[in-house]
Amino acid sequence: MDPQLDERIKSVNDLDFTLMGLFSHSGSHLVPFSLVAIIFTMGLLGNAILLFLIHTDYRLHMPMYLLLSQLSLLDVGFPLVTISKMAADFLQGEVSISFGGCAAHMFFLMLMGVSEGVLLSLISYDCYVTMCHPLHYPMLMRRQVCLAMVGTSWLSGVLVASIQTSITLHFPYCASHTVDHFFCELPALLKLSCADTSAYELSLSISRVLILLLPLSLITTSYSHVLRAVLRMYSADARHKAFTTCSSHITVVGLFYGAAMFTYMVPGTYHSPQQDNVVSLFYSLVTPTLNPLIYSLRNREVRMALVKVLGRTGFRSKR
pTM to 2 decimals? Predict the structure, then answer.
């Protein structure tokens, strides 16, 4: 490489990136910012409560809740990485992030995104075993299997994030350092590279098929069997309850995977940066807020554990 170009790239890589953000500082954006802040707080509170209940109540020390605790952990991390940075930038009037900070941003986002996608597919398998093979559930979902599932979801996230982050950061960034997004997302960052990234983007497209479509195929297969089992139920009340639960699960999965596929599989020429920002809110804010409500806080065991904790707290306050 030309020494002058190499020096220019090196000096630029030492500079900060500029994040465009979701909102400007005009008064008209205070209302949507406040709405995002409220949803963000509700999501953190819901997932924190669920983690606390699963940890403290022995009745929730079950395979299903082990998977759901990991989902809540990811749903705490996702908004903390994305929304908290956006909120801090909005309140402080600063929109910059260092090269290292952007790298860390991208790594943790991919880690949690891939891990959550895999984990949602494993939760769908748990639902399938519960509904279609209840007598074999203790064997098929024993603790060792659940721990292996949890390890698989986290390791897949670490592997994908490590490979893609390291490769992305090796590209020279000698063009504009303005990231047209409210966090450092891989597609938005690649647009700033002054090198030819076409081969890498082709390999990313292939890997995304595996990362997104393989778990999604497991989810589709699992819930199709579950819905078939629900339709064969004799009790109308049980059928209605099971169908409502499954449809809620499918809705959340559809929001997460739909947003991810729109961002990572649809060519960038078919959507604008503004659309990317809005869609990114679904998997970074909306689904992390909905997950504890859909998967756990509606369950009878979780409600009983919550009532028990609230009752214990009320008793202590009276004393």
Answer: 0.86
